[in-house]
Design goal:
CATH class: Mainly Alpha
Main location: membrane
GO cellular component, one term: plasma membrane
Structural class: mainly alpha
Number of helices: 13
Radius of gyration: 25 Å
Helix content: over 70%
Shape: elongated
CATH architecture: Orthogonal Bundle
Number of strands: 2
InterPro entries: BP-dependent_transpt_permease (IPR050366), MetI-like (IPR000515), MetI-like_sf (IPR035906), OppC_N (IPR025966)
CATH topology: MetI-like fold
CATH superfamily: MetI-like
Oligomer: single chain
Strand order of the largest sheet: 1-2
Distance between the termini: 48 Å
Largest sheet: 2 strands, antiparallel
Subcellular location: Cell membrane
Pfam family, one: OppC_N
Length: 320
């Protein structure tokens, strides 16, 4: 019995010794992050969008099938001619219906569409940003570490070729071959967005590999893989976080632009699709309540990624 207690106490001490330094590092990092008000603001905005993505029905006043004057389906009547002519309807707060940001030309609530579209934007932004970082950062590390060798030349010539690939025509061809789906849009954005990551990380790696601690690791017999990912990569992570945030923000904007041009998955709700609809139906100058909310939502999401990225650069900077 005493032996079991001693063993349990030993395991507890071992667990504490293992995790206590990591918890302390997290606390220090969080303390530095909260020093940046702009980063905290970005985190608050992104948290709101995350909640909208997880449970849109909790925050949206109606479902996406709700129609002004008629309510939720199934409908027991049709819109009258006068009701149709009143659409898009400006903000209404209970008479004749509740729509805090008004409706579009089809009678759907603008606020509900904005909230339900957050999930698609978050998915595309995070997926494209992570995918571009997972490709660009390792290639940049390898290219920089093996600078002025055939490995570096091969990677850089491939980057040069990709820089000559125009984004929009490439995406049009991809969509024509594989169809207009959210996955194909993410792939198209990621394929053309990892290049800046690779070039910047390569430059940082060329500088870092000349540092004394890298030379010491080589003398100690460390493998190239260990040197790249254990000694060099932690020092390029700060700039990688910035590019991750930029790529996520750029992906959100790119998806909205593609939706505005009609190159988007029309079965999914998106802010770009809302802007495309108001443009195609000719209400840009007469229905501000339909135009401004998706544009502001798009701007705030892109800004939140930038705010968090620049704050994370300071938190993860080894020099601090």
């Amino acid at each position: 019995m005493a032996t079991q207690q001693e063993s349990s106490g030993s395991d507890g001490e071992s667990f504490k010794r293992k995790w206590e330094p990591r918890i302390e590092r997290f606390r220090r990092g969080w303390s530095r992050f909260t020093e940046h008000r702009i980063g905290v603001l970005g985190l608050v905005i992104l948290t709101i969008y995350t909640l909208w993505s997880i449970a849109p029905g909790v925050f949206a006043p109606h479902s996406t099938e709700w129609v002004a004057y008629l309510g939720e389906p199934p409908f027991d009547r049709r819109l009258t001619g006068e009701q149709i002519r009143s659409l898009p309807h400006p903000p209404a707060f209970g008479d004749p219906f509740f729509a805090p940001l008004g409706t579009n030309a089809n009678g759907a609530g603008v606020l509900s569409l904005v909230i339900y579209s957050a999930k698609n934007a978050m998915y595309i932004g995070l997926a494209a940003g992570l995918l571009s970082s997972l490709v660009g950062v390792p290639l940049g590390l390898i290219s920089g570490f093996y600078g002025d060798t055939w490995i570096d030349e091969t990677i850089q010539r491939f980057v040069d070729i990709m820089y000559g690939l125009p984004f929009l025509p490439f995406l049009i061809v991809l969509v024509a071959i594989r169809g207009i789906t959210t996955t194909n849009i993410i792939i198209g954005i990621a394929v053309t967005s990892w290049l800046n990551n690779c070039i910047t990380v390569r430059g940082e790696t060329l500088s870092l590999k000349e540092r004394s601690y890298v030379e010491s690791a080589k003398v100690a017999g460390a493998s190239d893989t260990r040197i790249i990912f254990r000694h060099i990569m932690p020092n390029v992570l700060p700039i990688s976080f910035v590019f991750l945030a930029q790529d996520a923000a750029g992906a959100v904007i790119a998806q909205a632009s593609l939706a505005y041009l009609g190159l988007a998955d029309f079965t999914a709700n998106s802010w770009g699709l809302m802007l495309q609809n108001i443009q195609s139906q000719g209400y840009i100058f007469s229905a501000w309540w339909w135009l401004l909310p998706p544009g502001i939502a798009l701007m705030l999401m892109a800004a939140s990624f930038y705010f968090i990225g620049f704050s994370m650069e300071d938190v993860t900077n080894p020099q601090r």
